[in-house]
UniProtKB/TrEMBL annotation:
NCBIfam families: PRK05581.1-4 (NF004076), rpe (TIGR01163). A divalent metal cation binds at H33, D35, H66, D175. It comes from the Bacteria. InterPro entries: Aldolase_TIM, Ribul_P_3_epim, Ribul_P_3_epim-like, RibuloseP-bd_barrel. It holds the Pfam family Ribul_P_3_epim. Substrate binds at S8, H66, G142, F143, G144, G145, D175, G176, G177, G197, S198. Belongs to the ribulose-phosphate 3-epimerase family. PROSITE patterns: RIBUL_P_3_EPIMER_2. The active site is at D35, D175. The gene is rpe. The keyword Repressor does not apply. CDD domains: RPE. This is Ribulose-phosphate 3-epimerase. GO terms for biological process: pentose catabolic process; pentose-phosphate shunt.
């Protein structure tokens, strides 16, 4: 499988959100990444159900919803109904991660788990077969435009080894600081999905930037 590109609408122009989503529809991106922040789990607040519903109304691509919130299990069904095709929760925010994964799958959505930069990959060893996507945070979550953390490459390799060992079909997603320089190295290390926010939306031609990321070859 060739790698997937998931632009983050956190970096889009919310004053013309429908226009930006339409641009993503017409681009070669695969998913649309939606970052939900509650101001408690991370030091920022983004958007919730109404904005996600507005994105869903225009989107023709998979909605990849990343919940950077406390107690995500309280809102799983609402996010699925609002349009989420993939729901990713943080391992650090889930007391009962296995239960939350089953809760996500019961809605019909795919289940993802995100790991903060300080969280080791081995915490997922007992649930990796139940996870559709692991999102490795390559910056500290909360704000766009941060510097990429170099240890991410090693975590990709460790995660890939775990997936292969368990014969799981889990995808590896990288979120934070993705750009033209590190994207080829991430794919080479084993990344399946690249999330790019400011690198895409701050470029002169977001669609062309997405295309350039999509065309990366090993």
């Amino acid at each position: 499988m060739s790698h997937l590109i998931a632009p983050s609408v956190l970096s889009a122009d919310f004053g013309q959100l429908a226009t930006d989503v339409q641009m993503l529809n017409e681009s070669t991106c695969d998913w649309i990444h939606c970052d939900v922040m509650d101001g408690r789990f991370v030091p920022n607040i983004s958007f919730g159900f109404p904005v996600l519903q507005a994105i869903k109304a225009h989107a023709k691509k998979t909605l990849d919803v990343h919940l950077m919130i406390e107690a995500p299990e309280l809102y799983i069904e609402q996010f699925q109904k609002a349009g989420a095709d993939i729901i990713t929760v943080h391992e650090e925010a889930c007391t009962h991660l296995h239960r939350t994964l089953q809760q996500i799958k019961a809605t019909g959505a795919k289940a993802g788990v995100a790991l903060n930069p300080h969280t080791p990959v081995h915490v997922l060893s007992d649930v990796i077969e139940d996870i559709d996507v692991v999102c490795l945070m390559s910056v500290n979550p909360g704000f766009g435009g941060q510097k990429f953390i170099q240890n991410t490459y090693r975590k990709i390799e460790q995660l890939k080894a775990l997936i292969l060992e368990r014969n799981a079909s889990t995808l590896i997603e990288i979120d934070g600081g993705v750009n033209a320089e590190n994207a080829p190295l991430l794919v080479k290390a084993g990344a399946d999905v690249l999330v790019a926010g400011s690198f895409v939306f701050n470029s002169n031609s977001p669609a062309q930037t997405i295309q350039s990321l999509k065309e990366i070859s090993l």
